[in-house]
Specification:
The protein has 20 helices and 16 strands. It is mostly helical. It has a domain at 8-218: Glycosyltransferase, CATH 1.50.10.10. The strands form seven sheets. The chain has a three-stranded antiparallel beta sheet. A hairpin with a 4-residue loop joins strand 9 and strand 10 (365-366).
């Protein structure tokens, strides 16, 4: 029997609500990541007795939580860098700090009563760092780039085995190994991870993970066979007017995000959207990994107009196309020609859809497709580099993307994520490691090495400068002013940091 996990917020119900709306913790993720010191039933009983005795003050509530829960810690934030080491040496030293061992101890109590949001994993893994003390799906691919440079292929395989375990037991790879992520995934880089390991260990890696790759695909494509002109959407699949099936981001759970509970309640008061739709669009944007960006906003500026589920994202469909190509190769290795040909055909159909629907003829750039209006969004972002990264763009399209990235996105510290200064963390002036790598490699794929190398030089210079000034590797950076830190988002800038370490080490060693 696969394990069952009752989400932390459901286990503690009104206690969870009271804590998250009380403001006793500056970060809404603190309590949801705490671990109960005794059984859920006992804590709930004691809490109800405390509440029934009279009006509960904020101080009393905090004292109760501290007495009954162990709060999360951030070892990477307390790590003191040896400043005699280079940035590359610092990263090599950080791998151990960011390593978490197999979570067997969490299962000492039954999942229903253990009072933790952590989903146990059977093998060691790397966490991003800072407030993020669990594995994250798409982060892990970029972390693995650095692990490969360090020769830590055993850790890469451990992490792949963990993801395969999640696919087998839960049915998909969640955003992270927390119960509050059980409704959503993240950009599906599993196939890219498998291919990364296969480059080192050979094609047997594709055969080993073929069952998990197929289940991953089945998750993203669930309901596709039931779509019609009258019913064109279901969860993560969308049928376009000509019958082409493409993907969108989604979340199978409803309501405010437990890890950002008060923030979502506050936004709901400001938004004209029905609460159910607003929360779904917020959750879907979290599945994208770009939480948050004006990319998802109807007017390109106002957070309350978020409409993630109405968009066909460029990056997501490029990733699914790569998954289809990988499945085709894996089935061919098993001499299953019919399945191999089927997935090859699906990949070609999706390539055509990306080249057609996500290409804005007027701006000469890849953009997300707004399927209700049957038009691109007109919002340029670095997601446009994904068709180059996965060799999906036509050469003529790639040339125009390269030109615009050089003209508009390239800054002193790398490439900026979007051109909109909305105050959201995935917008101007911030740059993020994963998108630097996708852009650099995408440009190289089409022969634009000079601009790719300029981006790499600018980014590594910024990363090393910040490290030399602070002893830290950051989650994100201000790439427009190398003397300022990054900003925006629902939490302070984090240090650690898994994907920054991975991408920087890859660039420094190549």
């Amino acid at each position: 029997m696969p394990p069952t996990y009752t989400p932390f917020e459901e286990s503690f119900s009104d206690l969870f609500h009271d804590v998250q709306t009380s403001g006793i913790f500056a970060d809404s993720k603190t309590f949801i990541d705490a671990t109960a010191k005794q059984s859920v039933a006992i804590i709930i009983q004691q809490y109800h007795e405390l509440k029934s005795s009279g009006k509960l003050t904020t101080d009393q509530l905090k004292a109760f939580v501290l007495a009954n829960f162990k709060l999360p810690t951030s070892p990477s934030s307390d790590f003191e860098a040896d400043m005699t080491r280079s940035a590359a040496e610092h990263i090599e030293n950080l791998w151990e700090v960011l390593t978490r061992q197999a979570d067997h101890h969490i299962e000492e109590l039954a999942p229903r009563t253990r009072g933790s949001s952590l989903i146990p994993l059977p093998n060691p893994y790397i966490v991003p760092g800072g407030r993020f003390n669990e594995i994250y799906y798409w982060d892990s691919y970029f972390t693995m780039l650095g692990l490969a440079e360090s020769g830590r292929y055993e850790m890469i395989e451990n992490m792949l085995d963990n993801f395969a375990y999640l696919i087998d037991t839960i049915g998909f790879i969640p955003n992270g190994n927390r119960t509050y992520f059980l409704g959503r995934s993240q950009p599906p880089f599993f196939a890219a991870m498998v291919n990364l390991l296969a480059k080192e260990k050979g094609n047997e890696v594709l055969t080993k993970y073929l069952p998990a790759l197929q289940k991953e695909y089945d998750f993203w494509m669930a309901g596709a066979s039931d779509l019609s002109l009258e019913n064109p959407t279901h969860r993560r699949v969308v049928r376009l007017q000509n019958g082409t099936i493409v993907n969108r981001y989604w979340d199978d759970r409803e309501g405010p995000r437990p890890e950002s509970y008060p923030e979502d309640l506050e936004l709901a008061e400001e938004s004209a959207q029905p609460n159910k739709e607003l929360y779904l669009n917020l959750r879907a944007a979290c599945e994208s990994g770009w939480d948050f960006s004006a990319r998802w906003f109807a007017d390109g500026n106002d957070f309350t107009t978020i409409r993630t589920t109405e968009l066909i994202p460029i990056d997501l469909n490029c990733l699914i196309c790569h998954l289809e190509e990988t499945l085709s190769i894996a089935y061919l290795l098993q001499n299953k020609a019919s399945e191999a040909n089927d997935f090859a055909a699906k990949a070609e159909q999706r390539k055509t859809a990306i080249q057609t629907y996500c290409w804005n003829i007027a701006t000469e750039f890849f953009e997300d497709y707004h399927f209700p209006s049957q038009d691109t969004t007109g919002i340029p972002t670095l997601a446009a580099a994904f068709p180059l990264f996965f060799n999906i763009a036509k050469p003529s399209q790639a040339a125009k993307v390269s030109k615009k990235i050089q003209a508009d996105f390239l800054k002193a510290g790398g490439v900026v994520t979007t051109l909109m200064e909305s105050g959201q963390q995935w917008d101007f002036p911030n740059g993020w490691a994963p998108l630097q790598w996708v852009t650099i490699q995408g440009l190289r794929n089409y022969g634009f090495g000079l601009i790719a190398n300029q981006i790499a030089e600018n980014w590594t210079t910024l990363n090393v400068k910040v490290y030399e000034n602070t002893g830290k590797m950051m989650e994100k950076y201000n790439v427009t002013d190398m003397n300022l830190g990054a900003g925006g988002g629902e939490y302070p800038v984090q240090d650690g940091f898994g994907w920054t370490n991975g991408v920087l080490l890859k660039l420094l060693k190549n």
